[in-house]
From TrEMBL, chain A:
Residues 278-288 have a biased composition (Polar residues). Belongs to the WD repeat BOP1/ERB1 family. It comes from the Eukaryota. WD repeats lie at residues 410-451, 665-706, 727-753. This is Ribosome biogenesis protein ERB1. Its main location: nucleus. It comes from Rhodofomes roseus. Residues 147-403 form the BOP1 N-terminal domain. It is found in: Nucleus, Nucleolus; Nucleus, Nucleoplasm. The lineage of its organism: Eukaryota, Fungi, Dikarya, Basidiomycota, Agaricomycotina. Residues 1-140, 274-341 are annotated as: Disordered. Pfam families: BOP1NT, WD40. Residues 297-307 have a biased composition (Pro residues).
Automatic annotation (TrEMBL), chain B:
Residues 231-265 are annotated as: Disordered. PROSITE patterns: WD_REPEATS_1, WD_REPEATS_2, WD_REPEATS_REGION. Component of the NOP7 complex, composed of ERB1, NOP7 and YTM1. Within the NOP7 complex ERB1 appears to interact directly with NOP7 and YTM1. The NOP7 complex also associates with the 66S pre-ribosome. Pfam families: NLE (PF08154), WD40 (PF00400). It is found in: Nucleus, Nucleolus; Nucleus, Nucleoplasm. SUPFAM superfamilies: WD40 repeat-like. Belongs to the WD repeat WDR12/YTM1 family. WD repeats lie at residues 193-225, 264-308, 377-399. This is Ribosome biogenesis protein YTM1. Its main location: nucleus. PANTHER family: RIBOSOME BIOGENESIS PROTEIN WDR12 (PTHR19855:SF11), WD40 REPEAT PROTEIN 12, 37 (PTHR19855). The keyword Lyase does not apply. It comes from the Eukaryota.
């Protein structure tokens, strides 16, 4: 609406100007160059103002009160005005009267006789150019709000403050517009912070822009045509060559024709399809970009970052980074590849003294070579603390006592000692070698107090586990000898003699056994010779193993001989022997009595079978996964079994749990020879042909939910390997955490805690 | 003695209990000095005619390194005045003689001046004099003898020897040692002690010779007096046939069977040693150690255990009381010889005042006679080395010597040491050796 008003105002103004213009302006009046500030036309201006002042409130009220109704009237007025304009422009094409420029006079030239425009002279003094004098503020084109809070507006050319003119409130402003006739042609000048009347040129510019005319007042859109090159006498008559136009300029081209014909033929033959038929594929297709599988091509890897320079690489490093003379010499002597760093720290006082880096090209080259040749593979790095993979086992030092050192050693003169047994009270040990010697010695002193000599190898030696009697069994070729050790107290000696050589023999069994029991009379017996001898069936071979039942009445032997007569169970009290198995699949390696139940373990080469002797049936077959079983022992609780094999494995079976091993330990480097559980301490030991004995802590919980805890404690070394055989037998001392071991080197050692 | 200006020096006051006192003035000693320089200093200051080596005790510890090291270890400043006690050094032990035996020697006694008694595994007790001459050999036991002790009864020519054996008995033997060496030495077994049902481990007598203590593998300790019974106190429980045969022998000369005064029962495993207490107030006290890792103190008169020191997993092999009688030294199979003070052990159960580490199992321990150096002890181990320790410096042995050297590259086991008047008898796998170990050149040689 404001723009429309301004438009209207300018129209009114124009009309007001127009109205007097033709009438009062004679040509001489036009000599005065008018700017509105000048007071030349004051009366005229007053008149105009008066007229305007009368009209203005009318327009204002109309615009305020009437609204749309008024607009129709405006349009009518505008139309009429437009018509007037047109008439005027027709009448006076130059329309000079609106110009605010110095008006030219049109005079007849004395020389040409043609009319010409004569402009008034411009006096080139300071006052003549009024364009600068009304802008005293010299702060330039800056945002003026910077001075909003200040009392001045800026500075004049002399550096004096230009003070802000006082501005009234809105009422003053309104009154001003009412009183000041030039208020509607003035606009706010930011630079001087006050309203300033628009100049004639500006008003004219506004008018032209409103009327969509060219804003340049001097532009004449209807200038007459000037024929420069056409027309009579102005033709171009200057060809470059006088040669006649060649024929080819106007004859169609033969080669083009041939090319075109070629295409035409191809089109006809269908070799070129001019317009491919539009198919569905040519349609713009939309597709789901996430439908495809994501590419598994790895993202290009960023190049590894070069190492950041450190203090030593500074041009001016601290003194401590500078190499000494020896370091420098050493650096120069070493090969380039072997150098710890590829530069030598140097010190320069200033950066401008630093020479050009001579290794720059070489370094860049090797860096590029590195990036080019080094296969950069994205490594999926597992964030695993390696310590967390180690099972949480208690420290061996917290599981004391266990044997740690060799306390003493008993020699068997270099003969292999395969048989070893410790008495139930832990005081005596018996060891038998392959030369037929059986030695009885004190465990703690190692003094052999008695020695027996038998014919042939000693295959097994075992103490009777009973404490009310005291004797041990020696197994040699096809014979078992029962020997009473010397220095027994009388009650024990008598009980033993009565047991082994009773005065009245028990009734002979119904089925005679091929095993003969021969005992010497108790009175004639001594510890020098066996009191009782069992003659195993002929060709049964050497008894490899003698095991006692926990109660000491039954003992079982495994002989190495071929055939069925391998396993025998002997009962001392009834002086009777029986073979528990009529037919055995596979060769039996070992047997074992269950400590609490009437169960019997039989180990063949690959399997361990568990029989119930009372019910005479097979309970279960344990599969250790060992190719050849060499040794076996049952935990004193009877719920766990360890089996060792010649293929270096040791399997722990939880008999309640599974037929498969609970744990397989493969710590020995050679075949296992012997395993043994300690009767009271939570320990077991395994011996091997690698000459070492390994001691384990094996805690078994009564709670069925908790798995046994097996902790390797100690590797005991000290036996020599002879003929590929190491430690052949290990046995624990029953009451102490001591271990007795027999080796192929003929030594029997006691290991103490 | 002014210190050199370049070195730091330490103020020191010397004290001694020997016959070589220094004036009690403050010395400034360079801290780099060791025992040798200090010993030279004392010798020069006293201007002794014959140089005597001295050892130095700084606050109860024997000085092993330099003074500066000791101060740094203890964190003692340079201004603090140190009181250093010195005493004559232990001379390096000298081997006196070797007494070869056919079998292992389980026990040696050199308590009788001029004579040496050995018990061997062949059951024989042999008597030697200091000129390596075998005076007498008596096959007293049929089984290996494990222990022997001289019963100090006041008799000039007749001596009592108690021996313990694997044959479940201990025997008391009289031995007449005539002053005239041409006369033969005669021995007679006067009585046999019958209590135990397992081999005996040790036998020992008290200072007056009135009582004996036997320790056995069956966990019992027998208390006996040394009176000879007129008749058998224990019935012979041998089979009838044997008795008949025995009766064929001379019934009068047969040793009488003797029963114990009392039996001390508390040990749960083998008792390896039982000894009487030393000193006046402790005459009725007995001390024992066993494989059940306990050391027990007994009131012999009432036969009750008055104090138990329980160590953890230390089966004890041998026990000896310090000369003062207030603490015990016990060998254990964990290769330590520990000192247990009975006074502190009453409040603190596992009070081990000192622990001497050995490379092999220490099998026996011996302390010098009461007049000797009260801080010293001898231990014999299975590696064939006898070590002399000073309780004031437990880190390493004062000196050590290897017995039966050159016989084998592996050491032979030492089973027994006895120490009296500067003479040390060592028995074991290789027989018996006699060494001279003394203090400061004063040898308590047999007179």
């Amino acid at each position: 609406m404001g723009a429309a008003e301004l438009n209207k105002k300018s129209k009114k103004r124009k009309a007001a100007d127009e109205a007097p213009a033709p009438v009062p302006f004679p040509e001489d009046v036009g000599l005065d160059m008018h700017s509105e500030d000048e007071g030349g036309d004051e009366a005229e201006a007053d008149d105009e103002d008066d007229g305007e002042a009368d009209e203005f409130p009318e327009i204002d009220t109309r615009s305020d009160s009437e609204g749309e109704d008024g607009s129709a009237g405006d349009e009518e007025e505008d139309e009429s005005e437009d018509e007037e304009d047109e008439e005027e422009s027709e009448a006076d094409t130059e329309d000079d009267d609106l110009r605010i420029y110095p008006k030219p006079k049109t005079v007849i030239s004395d020389i040409t006789g043609q009319p010409k425009r004569v402009y008034p002279e411009i006096e080139p003094d300071y006052d003549s150019d009024s364009s600068t004098e009304d802008t005293p503020n010299r702060v330039g084109n800056i945002p003026m709000h910077w001075y909003d809070d200040l009392p001045h507006l800026g500075y004049d050319i002399n550096g004096k403050k230009v003070l802000r003119a006082a501005r009234g409130d809105e009422l003053d402003k309104f009154l001003e517009t009412v009183e000041d006739p030039s208020a509607w042609t003035s606009a706010f000048d930011k630079n001087i912070q006050m309203d300033k009347p628009l100049t004639e040129e500006e008003l004219d510019l506004i008018r032209r822009l409103q009327e969509n005319e060219n804003p340049d007042a001097g532009y004449n859109p209807y200038e007459p045509t000037v024929e420069w090159f056409t027309g009579k006498g102005k033709e171009e008559v200057m060809p470059l060559s006088a040669a006649p136009e060649p024929k080819r300029r106007w004859v169609p081209s033969k080669w083009e024709k041939q090319k075109v014909m070629k295409i035409v033929r191809a089109i006809r033959q269908g070799r070129i399809i001019p317009n491919k038929p539009k198919t569905a594929s040519s349609q713009p297709q939309s597709y789901a970009i996430w439908n495809d599988e994501p590419s598994n091509v790895p993202a290009p890897l960023p190049a590894p970052k070069p190492r950041l320079p450190t203090n030593a690489e500074s041009y001016n490093p601290p003194e401590e980074y500078l190499p000494t003379e020896e370091e420098r010499k050493q650096w120069e002597e070493t090969d380039k590849e072997d150098r710890e760093r590829d530069f030598m720290p140097q010190k320069y006082g200033a950066l401008r003294l630093v020479p050009a880096y001579d290794q720059f090209i070489q370094e860049r080259f090797s860096r590029q070579l590195d990036l080019y040749l080094a296969p950069r593979v994205q490594r999926v790095k597992l964030q695993i603390d390696p310590n967390s993979l180690i099972p949480k086992l208690p420290s061996p030092s917290s599981l004391k006592p266990f044997p740690v050192y060799k306390s003493l050693q008993v020699s068997h003169d270099g003969h292999r000692v395969r048989a070893l047994s410790v008495s139930p009270d832990g005081a005596w040990a018996v060891s038998g070698d392959e030369n037929g010697n059986v030695g009885l010695w004190e465990v703690m002193v190692g003094k052999e107090v008695k020695r027996w000599k038998f014919q042939g190898k000693v295959g097994a030696v075992e103490w009777c586990p009973r404490t009310d009697v005291s004797f041990f069994v020696v197994g040699i070729e096809e014979q078992l000898h029962f020997i009473i050790p010397p220095n027994l107290s009388t009650p024990i000696l008598l009980a033993t003699q009565t047991l082994l050589a009773p005065a009245t023999l028990p009734p002979a069994p119904a089925t005679p056994s091929p095993v003969k029991w021969v005992s010497t009379a108790a009175a004639a017996s001594s510890s020098d010779s066996p009191i009782l001898t069992l003659h195993l069936p002929p060709s049964s071979g050497l008894p490899k193993q003698v095991v006692w039942h926990r109660k000491g009445d039954y003992l079982s032997t495994v002989s190495s001989g071929e055939g069925q007569g391998g396993v025998w169970i002997h009962q001392i009290s009834r002086r009777h022997s029986q073979a528990p198995f009529r037919k055995v699949k596979g060769s039996i390696q070992l047997v074992l009595f269950h400590p609490t139940k009437p169960h019997f373990f039989v180990a063949t080469q690959r399997y361990v079978r568990m029989y119930n002797l009372a019910e005479q049936k097979l309970l279960k077959t344990l599969m250790p996964g060992i190719r050849w079983i060499s040794c076996m022992d049952v935990h004193p609780s009877g719920d766990h079994l360890i089996v060792g094999g010649y293929d270096r494995k040791l399997c722990w079976f939880d008999l309640e749990l599974s037929d498969k091993p609970y744990k397989i330990l493969r710590y020995h480097t050679r075949a296992l020879r012997s395993v043994h559980f300690h009767p009271t301490y939570p320990l077991f030991a395994s011996s091997s042909d690698d000459g070492s004995i390994q001691v384990f802590h094996a805690r078994v919980y009564n709670d069925l939910m908790t798995n046994p805890l097996i902790v390797p404690l100690k590797i005991l070394r000290g036996h020599n390997i002879k003929d590929g055989l190491g430690v052949l037998q290990v046995r624990w001392c029953p009451r102490q955490p001591w271990l007795v071991s027999a080796g192929a080197d003929g030594e029997v050692a006691v290991w103490c805690s | 003695m002014a210190s050199t200006s370049a070195e730091t020096s330490h103020p020191v006051v010397f004290t001694t209990q020997t016959a070589y006192p220094l004036p009690s003035q403050k010395f400034m000693i360079p801290t780099s000095w060791k025992r040798y320089q200090l010993s030279q200093l004392v010798n020069k200051a006293l201007s002794l005619p014959k140089p005597l080596p001295f050892d130095f005790l700084v606050r109860g510890e024997i000085l092993r390194g330099t003074l500066a090291e000791w101060c740094a270890e203890k964190g003692i400043g340079e201004e603090e005045t140190l009181e250093i006690e010195y005493f004559e050094s232990v001379m390096p032990p000298q081997k006196m003689s070797t007494l070869p035996h056919e079998d292992w020697v389980s026990s040696v006694s050199c308590q009788l001046p001029g004579y040496l008694f050995t018990a061997s595994y062949d059951g024989t007790i042999r008597t030697f004099d200091y000129s390596q001459k075998l005076l007498h050999s008596a096959a007293i036991h049929t089984a290996p003898t494990t222990s022997i002790c001289l019963v100090p009864l006041s008799s000039s020519s007749k001596h009592f020897i108690a021996s313990a054996s694997h044959d479940l008995t201990a025997r008391l033997t009289t031995l007449s040692l005539p002053s005239d060496s041409s006369k033969p030495v005669e021995s007679q077994t006067v009585t046999s002690l019958h209590l135990h049902t397992a081999p005996l481990a040790s036998i020992s007598a008290n200072a007056s010779g009135s009582h004996l203590l036997t320790a056995s593998w069956d966990g019992l300790i027998g208390v006996w007096d040394t009176s000879i019974p007129a008749s058998d106190e224990v019935p012979a429980d041998e089979p009838a046939e044997r008795k008949k045969r025995r009766r064929v022998e001379d019934d009068a000369s047969r040793p009488k069977r003797k029963a114990p005064l009392s039996v001390l029962k508390s040990h749960t495993a083998r008792v390896s040693k039982a000894v009487f207490g030393r000193g006046e107030g402790a005459a009725q006290e007995a001390y024992s150690c066993g494989f059940d890792s306990t050391i027990r103190v007994w009131d012999v008169e009432n036969g009750v255990c008055t104090q138990t020191i329980a160590a953890s997993s230390k089966p004890f092999l041998d026990l000896a009381l310090t000369p003062a009688g207030t603490s015990a030294l016990a060998c254990a199979t964990d290769r330590t010889v520990s000192q247990y003070d009975f006074r502190t052990a009453a409040t603190n159960i596992s009070a081990s005042a000192a622990s001497l580490l050995h490379p092999a199992t220490p099998s026996c321990v011996a302390v010098p006679p009461p007049s000797g150096a009260e801080h010293q002890l001898l231990t014999g181990a299975y590696d064939g080395i006898v070590r002399l320790w000073d309780l004031r410096s437990t880190k390493s042995a004062v000196t050590s010597f290897r017995v039966w050297e050159g016989s084998e590259k592996k050491g032979k086991k030492v089973l027994s040491v006895d120490w009296a008047r500067g003479v040390v008898g060592v028995g074991g796998e290789g027989g018996v050796e006699i060494w001279r170990v003394g203090e400061g050149g004063r040898m308590f040689l047999g007179n």
